[in-house]
Amino acid sequence: MDWTLWLELVIKALVLIFALLGGFAYLTWYERRLLARFQSRLGPNRAGPFGLLQPIADAVKLIFKEELTPAKAYKLVFFLAPIMTLVPSVIIAAVIPWGPPFQLGDRIVTQSIADINVGVLFLMSIASIAVYGIVLAGWSSNNKYAMLGGLRSAAQMISYELTLGLAFVVAILLGNSMNLTDIVEAQRDGRWFVLVQPVGALILWIATLAEVNRHPFDMPEAEQELTAGYHTEYSGMKFALFFMAEYQKMIVVSAILATLFFGGYLGPWVDRWPLLGPVYMFLKIVILLFIMIWVRATWPRIRYDRLMAFGWKVLLPLALAVVMITAVGILLAEINPWMIWLIPIFSLIAGAFASLMIDRSLRRKAYA
Amino acid sequence: MQNEWLYIGLFLIVGVALPAASLIMAAIITPKKSNPIKNSTYECGMETVGDSWVQFKAQYYIFGLVFLIFDVETVFLFPWAVTLNKLPLFAVIEGIVFILILLAGFTYIWRKDALEWA
Amino acid sequence: MATTVSTKSVDLSTIFPDAVIADERKGYTGWLVEKDNLIEIATYVREELDYDLLSSVTGVDYLPEEKMEVVYQVYKTTGGPGLFFKVQIPREDPMEIPSVINIWPGADLQEREIWDLYGIKFPGHPDLRRILTWEGFEGHPMRKDWQEPFYEEETKPFKSRWPKGEHIHAEEINPYHDNLKFPPKFNPENWTPTDPEEALYTSLKKFTTKNEDGLEAEQIIVNMGPQHPSTHGVFRAVVVLDGEKVVSLKPVMGYLHRNHEKIGERNTYLHNMPYTDRLDYFNSMANNWAYALAVEKLMGIEVTERSEYIRVIMSELTRIQNHLVWVGIFLNDLGAVVTPLLYAFEERELILDIFEEVSGARMMCNYYRFGGVVRDMPVRAFEKLKQLVYDRLPGKIEEFERLLSENEILLSRVKGIGYLSAKDAIATSMTGPMLRASGVPYDIRRAEPYGIYDRFDFDVVTRPECDLYARYHVRIEEMHQSLRILEQAVSTIPEGPILPKKPVYQVRVPAGEAYGRIESPKGELGFYVISNGKPNPWRYHVRAPSFINITALEKMCVGEKIADFVAILGAIDIVLGELDR
């Protein structure tokens, strides 16, 4: 193999990892400042201008904190769990295309670590692995809150995994490929999949919220119930790794959502200046993150059994229906291209029907 | 194409090295003053009673089983979705019938109250 | 206006001529009941006379007469004055009085408190453990012959702190050394906190359940608290969980116990006023009023007209800010980070501004005095008040409703959760919004109007749902009603003196007993004060709504999810300063 290839790979990997790390650090700042604005207060503004050095201060504090391992814990798993949680959240970013390829000297540089033909499948499988770290963290702590948090996250993640998979199928159907670059390219000329299949995008967004344990689905770490959930016993750097994993997952799922439904790196003049691609991705991710934080600032938490019921009884049937509608619509579009717009119409009808049925399907069977 | 997977493998190594390095760094830097009280299990300040590694409620497992069935079936949809345009009409309808079968099984589970969190 | 309620008092001594005599000590009312006939008479009072709400049970130690007394205060939820009956027993161990828990389940925690603080046993009580002090505690601290560590003197002001006119800290002189007492063979170094807990855990019954499919699942005991983010302080509930479901629950309290009542008996009457602030620190204005009411009843003095209005204004403002904070914290318990809480605090701060202008303190107001209030309301505060009442608060409360009341997630979290039927609510002595949310229109401002509440036009808010949804709505609607009262009070407040006569440091309180109760934002807040003519109260008892409303916690939680436990506890609206006293 060519040594330049190695160099390219190492540079790309380092850039991506440091971008994710910096993204994580400043996402915490972004979230705290935003939450503060939602709550009519200021947020961190002491460390550096606008509190921009706050993440660094936090990092220093966490590094110097004493790490405790409970005497009753299963030590090896307890040590490995944070790593197992963090790694998937990093490597899942490997297949995301951050921009179109560009010419550097006489070689073409792609703006992704790996451009594999089963990118969507890769996303799906890595997303499933992420739950292991959390479950094992909860189990190995030998703590009741952590145990409950771990179990909750396991059940919750597998419930929304299905919906996530089906939402991926929608994107595959529309993009006609499992390669993420192909899916992005299929959205050229403003034909973002969110316009063709808005309900699919919504389903994917809800499922990813549940996958990354974000509000209002943050059961595994529900502070009011389980103190801190699966990471109750973790402190210092190990806790920081969980924290890091959660925020990196937020960034990555926003990137996935942007790639699959919001045109990925596409935007004006991106073909002339390929380095605009990451900029567009950044903007789209920031907007999607803003919505996530907005949700956190405004909504109460759904109760656990409701969350499961919502995933199974509302979201999953809706996702199946949306897959069918999309498939039929694509076939009809071959007869007449305008038929493609039957997809959003019918899926919106299905979505409206599902939301009308929410109350019915979630109603408690036994009343005290 | 083989290269691409190699890239991911390399990226994985970097990805593992990152948390490992930070844990090692923390292990060097952090103060180590543990005592039995600090290392006791946290339960809101009380001594914990009973074991937390117990036979837990079966509800969680039922969801696990249901998931297993559906997840495998969902994965079958992936190749079907990729080649939708190239498939003959028969295969497309077969795919839709497959989804309907999924739905039928799903309805069965629903009616059996397996999705009810009691 | 106020509905007419029966004011006819019942003559128990003609019904039970052998067992009941009228309490004829000077300044006392009620009936003295023979210990052996207590159950019979209590059943009669409950069943035939319809006194369904056991407001307060408390002990009194008459050391000079060598007697212990337990006082029962019962009311009708349809309104009207209460019925007091007392049981006297000789003051020598073992002291036993049959438990009335089967007649009024609301006696549960209160009888445990009496056992803990006075050492009177209640045969028939299923779970008579100590409640406010810990299991290994030596002695019963409310007894008059019990002396605390660093004990100096029986009553304040302590002479030892001002020898020759100079101040000395009590800790420096240690007049009686530290006076610490431990149980025999007790070694604090070796003591582990698990032993006394066994009684608690065994009372919870651990067992395994078999599911329908034959799989066995074990239940686990989880301590929610004392160091838990959502128990509103150092409250602890031991929960038995089957998966996510609550199977059984016991509240544990007393972590913040400071023997408020003993302190109150050491203090002079006026000393106690700032101490009442520390009970429910959100509602110091309400606490002041209840205490002032009891002492005014003893002293037999009238409150000046202007002060009556100021009292109503302050009390209703307190109610609004308490309910605002409650809505915020309740939403926080449901998991809505802290946004609603901070929105609520914004309005609360404006109300606290007014408190600050009239009393000098935002939370510990210490504003009421016997016969009035400590100083008049400044003009600027009055202008602020008008602006708040007419312009700002109505819109803000509606904004809360608009933002929250229709929220789908909120509704799914509160509807049908924490069911407590009207019958159970009355039986367990629930008061305040908790009782009204079960559909019982019982509001002391109407049932037995105090102050000048009979002059104002307002509705007693009830909801029929008996669940969290009802408790949420009752509080929102009560804020509207409070605003109605405030509007009337602001527009009709007269000029005039605020105190009937020159304020004095040492009030003369004639011997007797009095029970002053008000509708505090959390429920019925009562002060039971006994005077023997000396400068300090002989008995000073707080009937704390936070404490007694906890009685029904288990009933509401069993069968619900662990997440609902947090919401149900939050909906009771407890404040640990008042709960543990």
Report on this structure.
The complex is a heterotrimer of chains A (368), B (118) and C (581). Chain A has 368 residues and is mostly helical. Chain A is 67% helix and 2% strand. Chain A has 13 helices and two strands; from the N terminus they run H-H-H-E-E-H-H-H-H-H-H-H-H-H-H. Chain A has a two-stranded antiparallel sheet. In chain A, helix 1 (3-38) packs across helix 10 (236-261). The model of chain A has no long low-confidence stretch (mean pLDDT 82). By secondary structure, chain B is an all-alpha fold. Chain B is built from three helices and no strands. Chain B is flat, with a radius of gyration of 25 Å. Chain B starts with a helix and ends in a 7-residue tail after the last helix. The model of chain B has no long low-confidence stretch (mean pLDDT 78). Chain C has 581 residues and is α+β, with helices and mostly antiparallel strands. Helices cover 37% and strands 16% of the residues of chain C. Chain C has 20 helices and 18 strands. In chain C, the strands form six sheets. Chain C has a five-stranded mixed beta sheet with strand order 1-2-5-4-3. Chain C has a three-stranded antiparallel beta sheet with strand order 11-12-13. In chain C, strands 16-17-18 form a three-stranded antiparallel beta sheet. In chain C, helix 9 (305-333) packs antiparallel against helix 10 (339-359) and helix 9 runs antiparallel to helix 19. Chain C is globular and about 60 Å long. Chains in contact: A-B, A-C, B-C. The B-C interface holds B 43-50, 52, 54-61, 117-118 and C 192-194, 197, 201, 206, 208, 211, 213, 215-218, 220-228, 236, 242-245.
Question: What descriptors fit this protein?
Answer:
heterotrimer, A: 368 residues, mainly alpha, two-stranded antiparallel sheet, C: 581 residues, alpha+beta, Beta Polymerase, domain 2, Cytochrome-c3 Hydrogenase, chain B, 20 helices
Give a short synopsis of this structure.
Chain A has 13 helices and two strands. Chain A has helices at residues 3-38, 54-63, 75-91, 119-140, 144-175, 180-185, 193-196, 198-211, 223-226, 236-261, 276-298, 304-335, 342-362; strands at residues 102-104, 107-109. Chain B has one domain (2-111): NADH:ubiquinone/plastoquinone oxidoreductase, chain 3 (Methane Monooxygenase Hydroxylase, Chain G, domain 1, Up-down Bundle).
